[in-house]
Amino acid sequence: MSKSKVFQIDQKVVYPAQGVGIIKSIEDRVFKDKKTPYYTIYIEVTDMTIMAPVEAAESLGIRAIVSRDEANKALELIGEDYGDIPSDWKLRFQMNQDLLKKGSVIDIATIVRTLYHRSKMKELPIQERKLYDTALTILKDEVSCSLRKPKEEVENMIFARLESR
């Protein structure tokens, strides 16, 4: 038995570590001799199309865009005090990568806040810089969709809060 479809065509969703996408279609594909419904998700920022089984969407972390309240909570979080940042970049990278895979807007805001402030102390290693850029893009795109504001305005809001510390 397949689960009912949670998302609709043209609905915006977040695919962890990939970003904000839009459900372009829901179509049946044959996989292992079984007809399985798949979401076709277009991720604009990378110009990539991903197919994900409808039944696996939740386990893959695919979720709807957050509410205005959640988006505002994420913006508030990046302006708050932050705890100690591990100096071992490999440990820090793994912790942040795990947060990115979990994919909640709060987790993504935490990554942005932590790595932004770490970069002010010392230049980030290349892999960590890419992780920061990815998290910032996802946060900016999702908050922009949620608050229905232009991405540039949201980016300015994010940096204003980051700089307030």
Describe this structure in words.
With 165 residues, the protein is α+β, with helices and mostly antiparallel strands. The chain folds into two domains: 12-64, Thrombin, subunit H (Beta Barrel), CATH 2.40.10.170; 68-163, CarD-like, C-terminal domain (Methane Monooxygenase Hydroxylase, Chain G, domain 1). Helix content is 49%, strand content 21%. It is built from six helices and five strands, in the order E-E-E-E-H-E-H-H-H-H-H. It has a five-stranded antiparallel sheet with strand order 4-3-2-1-5. The longest helix has 22 residues, at 126-147.
Question: What's the arrangement of secondary structure elements?
Answer:
Elements: E1 12-15, E2 19-31, E3 34-43, E4 48-53, H1 57-60, E5 63-64, H2 68-78, H3 89-102, H4 105-121, H5 126-147, H6 151-163
Antiparallel strand pairs: 1-2, 1-5, 2-3, 3-4
Helix pairs in contact: 2-4, 2-5, 3-4, 3-5, 4-5, 5-6
Question: Which short descriptors sum up this protein?
Answer:
2 domains; Thrombin, subunit H; 5 strands; Methane Monooxygenase Hydroxylase, Chain G, domain 1; alpha+beta; 6 helices; 165 residues
Q: What's the tally of helices?
A: 6
What is the CATH first-level class name of the largest domain? Mainly Alpha
What is the second-level CATH architecture of the largest domain?
Up-down Bundle
Low-pLDDT residue intervals, each spanning 5 or more residues: none
Span between termini:
51 Å
Give the gist of this structure:
The chain is α+β, with helices and mostly antiparallel strands and 165 residues long.
